[in-house]
Amino acid sequence: MKQTATDKIILASASPRRAELLRRLGLQFTVRRSEVDESGVTAATPAEQALLLARRKAEAVAAQEETGIIIAADTIVHLQGTILGKPAGYREAQSMLSLLSGRTHEVLTGVALIRQPEGYRAGHVETTRVTFRRLTEAEIGWYLESGEAFDKAGGYGIQGRAAVFVKKIDGCYFNVVGLPLAALWTMLTQAGGIKMVKGAGMNVNTAPDHQRPATE
Amino acid sequence: MKQTATDKIILASASPRRAELLRRLGLQFTVRRSEVDESGVTAATPAEQALLLARRKAEAVAAQEETGIIIAADTIVHLQGTILGKPAGYREAQSMLSLLSGRTHEVLTGVALIRQPEGYRAGHVETTRVTFRRLTEAEIGWYLESGEAFDKAGGYGIQGRAAVFVKKIDGCYFNVVGLPLAALWTMLTQAGGIKMVKGAGMNVNTAPDHQRPATE
Do residue B169 and residue A167 have CB atoms under 8 angstroms apart? Predict the structure, then answer.
């Protein structure tokens, strides 16, 4: 895989977990924090909300970047009609984990991609179902003491200690961490951001960069 | 969570991925490589084979350790009646990935636990279904160039670049990496290896260590 100068990837996210996910694919990218006020944003469904927020983050960075492929994402934890945000403190985190215990919830990540200067835009929402086993009060206490709960939607991070809470998932695992990698890879390939070079770099397996329609 | 001196956990595995999984739970443990010849082992089903190999690894270490909780595991990749081992070279890895492309396979991990000196034994097999999207030849080439394929059953590691190949999983993600963490946690708790201490270390939520039957 080669990335040329025109394929600069910009991750519009301050999340260290998203950066870490991109890094393990061997992708070159830069990080731009997007300043978007998420508080007033509401949409008809969790999926629409995740995509709307991802788009706003991508647009905010696209307004400042003349070239490159901008990626933004927003992850939502959804249980029985309620969206679980980042817990404000110990008590809220505790009640979120009690709510998740023994139940299946959904994690939705909206991903927005903008390619500059063409203005090509693409969007995707990935949903993963996550089933927690029944947790004891003591286990919730053990988890909260680790401090892992407080900066994460739903009050847990699947990649840390909460791994032992998750009986099974149905869907993309990396979506639960914060970026649906297989779907993102396909989006990047379609946007011309991934160039596959086979063998000794002779067989470039990619569509021309500037002949793609601006689709959604 | 507290681990007392009698709860020494011994990981009977040379796999750096398994050690890394245990580490992120905050568990204290030591590693003992178990010398088991896997070549002649066959069983009626993939599940039985994974458990049999895990047990042999655990027994080999238990013969040398007088106290502690020994954990061993064996991971098998299974597709349409065939078990895919670690590829011997580039060509074999290439054909394994071609076989996995666009299909759903099973990853089975057998876990064996032995608690010494009591001789308490427990076993478990966890199965996760993994669905690959269709891969291009160039993508397989890109993956093989990374070198990640060669020391892994089935010719891929889900936690690295192959993340972008996996459309979805159904089951425990960590099982695919090499240890089913939720199931292992339950086994360790039942064996008395995890002591939950709630609040300021006052409420010990665990069964007495030496009153458990030697079950399978």
Answer: no
Say what angle helices B137-145 and B90-100 make with each other, to 10 degrees.
Answer: 130
3-state DSSP assignment of residue A75? strand
Cβ–Cβ of A163/B186 closer than 8 Å?
no
Paired tokens of B37 = 């010849």
Beta strand B82-84 with B68-79: parallel, antiparallel or unpaired?
A: antiparallel
CB A138 to CB B186 under 8 A?
no
Q: Which residues of A touch B (CB under 8 A)?
A: 1, 21, 24-26, 128, 133, 136-139, 141-142, 146, 158-161, 163-174, 181-182, 184-186, 196-199, 203, 205
Q: What is the pLDDT of residues A128-184, one digit of tens each?
A: 999 999 999 999 999 999 999 998 999 999 999 999 999 999 999 999 999 999 999
CA dihedral A41, A43, A49, A51 (to 10 degrees): -110
- Active centre residues of B (catalytic): 74
Q: What is the ipTM of this complex?
A: 0.86
Question: Which H/E stretch holds residue A124?
Answer: strand A120-132
Q: Provide the CB-side half-sphere exposure for A98 (13 A, CA).
A: 9
User: B147 CB contacts (<8 Å, ≥6 apart)?
Assistant: none
